[in-house]
């Protein structure tokens, strides 16, 4: 994978710069924390079901606070609680979160206990809201806060540190009913080079992707992906044997197909382009590897509202879950901006997304096929 490829991770960089809107809408059916059941892959496997009830479960939600969830949680916990309630009221069943890896380390390979306590608070907020979490790991998006010691490690030591992160996360998540899945890494590449370093997908002061190694040593990309994934899952399974595991994937199915046997479901990131909904659906079909598909990122960033709507509705025979992007701005404020005519082009994009999310949510959740 080339660092200058216009990937989904670069698109989400654009998203991080846009003000978002959330709206208060009718509940899809609230859940008390004690009512949250574990989510399993159905035996077919063509989707998800709750255990022990056996009821069908549809991941329908948004990426939340993609760059600063731990900072937001520490500084504005009431805001996080409010926004989870807003997401729930809009019909969200799953929130994909990206806790920054440096927040969890106090020194070289030393997990900070306070960070884990902070994360427990997030789990509690999710439990009380009735929203399940898809936890994306190993995020080092913010360039300014990266761990110098971590980036100086060789491949073997870096992988050990990554496994340590996942072991710590799984240990505190194992008993929480709010955990839907562990998302091993956002849009990884297999092999980079020492000249350009570990990170790719730069937008401003963040990088949204990283490589697994800087030296292939004669191995194929598939071998690297398989070995790394095996190690990460092993770390998780030391403490949590039940929760699902996936990986956020760039729109390059050939690069990730080899991982299918190790994952519970696949999670491609797909953004339809204007006039090319059919092409995006054709790309989605290439991820049909006998596992459920949850589209881990999608948004009308490069297409119209109606084209995004068509893509989502027409994808129902192929995918079993969909995750967009949730706003950072208050719902009331941006709605008032719209009414007052003071909104911007970007704020209107976000308002339209949440409106669409609300509008078609019942169809996406209740009807598996058109």
Report on the structure:
The longest helix is centred in the last third of the chain and has 22 residues. The protein has a single domain, classed as Alpha-Beta Barrel (TIM Barrel). It is α/β, with parallel strands linked by helices and 370 residues long. The chain has twelve helices and 16 strands. It is globular and about 55 Å long.
Series of H and E elements: HEEEEHHEEEHEHHEEEEHEHEHEHEHH
For the secondary structure, the number of strands is 16
Tell me the strand order in the biggest sheet.
14-13-9-8-5-4-16-15
User: What's the CATH first level?
Assistant: Alpha Beta
- Helical coverage, percent range: 25-40%
CA gyration radius, whole angstroms: 19 Å
CATH topology name: TIM Barrel
How would the blueprint of this fold be written?
Elements: H1 8-15, E1 38-41, E2 48-51, E3 56-57, E4 60-64, H2 69-75, H3 77-89, E5 94-97, E6 105-107, E7 110-111, H4 113-129, E8 132-136, H5 148-151, H6 155-173, E9 179-186, E10 189-191, E11 199-203, E12 206-213, H7 221-237, E13 244-249, H8 253-256, E14 267-268, H9 277-285, E15 294-295, H10 305-314, E16 321-325, H11 331-340, H12 345-366
Parallel strand pairs: 4-5, 4-16, 5-8, 8-9, 9-13, 10-12, 13-14, 15-16
Antiparallel strand pairs: 1-2, 2-3, 6-7, 11-12
Helix pairs in contact: 2-3, 3-4, 4-6, 6-7, 9-10, 10-12
């Amino acid at each position: 994978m080339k660092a200058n490829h216009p990937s989904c991770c670069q698109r989400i960089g654009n998203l991080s710069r846009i003000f978002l809107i959330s709206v208060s809408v009718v509940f899809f059916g609230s859940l008390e924390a004690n009512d949250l059941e574990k989510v399993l892959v159905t035996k077919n496997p063509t989707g998800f079901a709750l255990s022990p009830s056996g009821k069908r479960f549809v991941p329908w939600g948004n990426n939340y606070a993609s760059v600063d969830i731990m900072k937001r949680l520490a500084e504005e916990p009431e805001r996080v609680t409010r926004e989870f309630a807003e997401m729930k009221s809009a019909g969200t069943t799953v929130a994909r979160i990206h806790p920054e890896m440096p927040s969890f380390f106090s020194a070289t390979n030393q997990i900070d206990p306070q960070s884990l306590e902070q994360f427990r608070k997030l789990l509690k907020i999710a439990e009380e809201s009735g929203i399940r979490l898809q936890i994306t790991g190993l995020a080092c998006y913010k360039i300014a806060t990266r761990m110098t010691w971590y980036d100086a490690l060789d491949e073997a030591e870096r992988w050990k540190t990554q496994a340590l992160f996942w072991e710590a996360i799984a240990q505190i998540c194992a008993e929480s009913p709010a955990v839907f899945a562990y998302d091993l890494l956002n849009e990884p590449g297999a092999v980079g080079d020492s000249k350009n370093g570990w990170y790719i997908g730069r937008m401003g002061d963040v990088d949204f992707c990283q490589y697994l190694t800087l030296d292939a040593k004669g191995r194929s990309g598939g071998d690297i992906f398989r070995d790394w994934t095996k190690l990460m899952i092993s770390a998780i399974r030391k403490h949590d044997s039940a929760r699902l595991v996936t990986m956020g994937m760039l729109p390059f199915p050939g690069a990730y197909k080899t991982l299918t046997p190790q994952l519970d479901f696949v999670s491609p990131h797909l953004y339809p382009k204007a006039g090319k909904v059919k092409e995006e659906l054709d790309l989605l079909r290439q991820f049909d590897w006998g596992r459920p598909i949850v589209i881990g990122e999608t948004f009308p960033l490069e297409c119209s509202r109606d084209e995004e709507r068509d893509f989502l509705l027409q994808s129902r025979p192929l995918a079993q879950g969909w995750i967009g992007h949730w706003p950072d701005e208050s719902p009331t404020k941006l709605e008032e901006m719209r009414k007052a005519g003071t909104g911007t082009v970007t704020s209107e994009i976000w308002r339209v997304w949440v409106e669409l999310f609300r509008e078609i949510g019942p169809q996406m959740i209740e009807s598996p096929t058109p």
